[in-house]
Automatic annotation (TrEMBL), chains A, B:
Residues 24-122 form the HTH hxlR-type domain. This is Helix-turn-helix transcriptional regulator. It comes from Microbispora triticiradicis. CDD domains: HTH_ARSR. GO terms for molecular function: DNA binding; DNA-binding transcription factor activity.
Amino acid sequence: MPTRTAAQRREEARRRYDAYVATCPSRQLLDALSDKWVSLVLTALARGSLRYSELARTIAGVSQKMLTQTLRTMERDGLVSRTVTPSVPVRVDYRLTPLGENLMPLMEAIKNWAEIHMEDVEAAREAYDRRPAAAP
Amino acid sequence: MPTRTAAQRREEARRRYDAYVATCPSRQLLDALSDKWVSLVLTALARGSLRYSELARTIAGVSQKMLTQTLRTMERDGLVSRTVTPSVPVRVDYRLTPLGENLMPLMEAIKNWAEIHMEDVEAAREAYDRRPAAAP
DNA sequence: CGGCATCCCACATGATACTG
DNA sequence: CAGTATCATGTGGGATGCCG
């Protein structure tokens, strides 16, 4: 049972944290969330837990090193949980924590936006690149 | 007048673009949106246009180089527009395009999430760092 | 004021090889 | 299978200086 309502908590957070301030922890958290791989890992786990190798296959092009590193950071930040089954060979499953499930829809929205508006962005780029340069 | 409804368009985009595929343009767009500065610029312009120097002051800690570079990329991608007033000294204003206004709330949600859940993340980090290491 | 050009380096990331 | 360790490298990003 929380001692604060969601609205109260939101207000307190706004007073305490401001991502526009370079030294604010929330700014560093925003930087961490603005990672190339975090959004993909988060959305990949949307429908339940996945094994390490399943994650690697889902997120094409990610290196072992970056996947492991991203998962470790996300685990430390409380976004994913890691479960080791000591079989032979060992089996490791990752799933979203409640905190990760809370963030996931926001990241999914960004990912969907990128897919849905890709054509608009490509059109904007072509228009920009067609602009005449200033005359000498 | 669009020839497709929003729902139709969404379905087409899902068929055509998949950010999980490394070579898909939408993956590269997602990478671009997952930039350290894009979310801050986008939300800074939420309430209207700002001059270059106002942006620089709002987003503490950003260097001239990175701010300019971020704004150029966002301009090319059709997210912001740039207006030069040829006074002396010159005045340059940036504002969100309709496309940028469409994306902004999603980025603002991420930024707010970081501010609101900072305490949860810090608690998770402390718990993680307190974990006992495996015995030798 | 609002840039762009240049230099430079730390660090993030990729590739490869090895292991419990 | 799921990593860790090591080495190589590309580039993000800061500092500085000049310009319209």
